[in-house]
Amino acid sequence: MKEQKLSLVKFAPRNGVGFFDTLKIRIDKYFSDNKLDMHGNASMKWKSVAIVSMYLAPYVLLVAGVGAASLWIFYGLWCLMGLGMVGIGCAIMHDSNHDSYSGNKGLNKYMGKIIVLVGGYDVTWRLQHNVLHHTYTNIEGLDHDIDAGVLLRFSPHQERRSFHKYQHFYAWFLYGLLTFQWATIKDFRQVRDYHRLGLLKKEKLTLNQALTHVAIYKIIYYAFILLMPILFSGVAWYHILIGFFIMHFIAGLSLSCIFQLAHVMGECEFPVPDDNKKMENNWAIHQMLNTANFGPKSKIMNWFIGGLNRQVEHHLFPYICHVHYKSIAPIVKATAKEYGVPYFEQPTFLAALREHARLLKKLGRA
Asked: How far apart are CA 154 and CA 160, in angstroms?
């Protein structure tokens, strides 16, 4: 397989003490003054137990045959597992793969692999999310989070097709298929692509090693999620397949909405580099212009989705655990105001969802 290279861009230099330098000093001072660790605390560990239980407890009940007496109970357990997948993806796996879950790198690596329970592969996640998305947010061709294939247009720089004018209607169904891709073909395709781009080297893996890992993880996942219920639940196999679909659709739709509301929004810029592959702004300002918060006052959002409703804070400080975002948000917001830097925020999840839908409609027609 012929190796290619990503056509990378360069951000403008910070040129002395400015917004981000001042902000970083203030954030560091907050943690030192309050004698706090930037990583997860005891509440993070209790949250992990609760969320993993939300996924595994219904599974155990399914395999034990609890759902055999009533299909309402049976499908309800699959629904709970779908919500558990969302919690695992947002509030546990996400921090772990950013090394912010714990100060112990071994524990971060171990907890990051929990993505296997929901059908994913931690290596391709880190490469797509940590390396590409967090560095080159909303830059066409580099941020693979805004590359959804031909069916969806997330950027004004992507080719518009005639059917895109309906994407604000059909996008929600496609969002529901997100984790199906994790569980089936996406990891295999990404391993191939990231090998060709030379990114697997960052994880100290060869192509054959990565493909072997993905194959083993998929076998374990399908034995766990389908074979065991088919053998022991006492429910017909086709009901199990329907339940599997319901679980993944709930997780896929929820996770897609959570992540898209952070960047595919009307206020975001989607900038392009100049002819010399240089960006107009430095990295921190770029993040502020292409990231948005939503529902900052929602206790459910702050707890269950791992603070990912505060994506501004997360993108500036991905190494800080989400349990601290609520506390550092006022510092970020005040510093942004002081330096005249935009701080995008929608008051509620529904308000952000409406704004995202409006942008999908606009991108589909313009």
From this structure: 10
Token code pair at residue 259: 């992540």
Q: Which of 273, 329, 256, 290 is nearest to 134 (CA)?
A: 290
d(CA 200, CA 190): 10
Q: Does residue 287 surpass a pLDDT of 80? A: yes
Q: For residue 344, which phi and psi values (nearest 5 degrees)?
A: -85, 135
DSSP collapsed to 3 states, 292-330: EEECCCCHHHHHHCCCCCCHHHHHHCCCCCHHHHHHHHH
> Which two tokens mark 272?
């392009």
**100 three-class SS:** coil
Instruction: Give yes or no for a contact between 21 and 44, defined as CB atoms under 8 angstroms apart.
Output: no
Determine contact, residues 154/137, Cβ cutoff 8 Å. no
Residues constituting the chain: 366
Max Cα distance, the chain (Å)? 68
Q: Quick one: average pLDDT of 310-315?
A: 97
Residue 1: pLDDT above 60?
A: no
Query: What is the per-residue pLDDT across 345-357, written as a single tens digit (0 to 9) for each?
Result: 999 999 999 999 9
Beta strands in 206-354 (DSSP E): 292-294, 344-346
pLDDT-based confidence at residue 75 (cuts at 50, 70, 90): very high
- Asked if residue 291 lies in contact with residue 19, where contact means CB atoms within 8 angstroms, the answer is no
Place of tokens 């196999």: 237
Distance CA 249, CA 355 (A): 22
Triad 351, 355, 356: Cα angle to 5°:
115
pTM, two decimal places: 0.93
N- to C-terminal Cα separation, the chain: 38
Residue with tokens 């699959």: 78
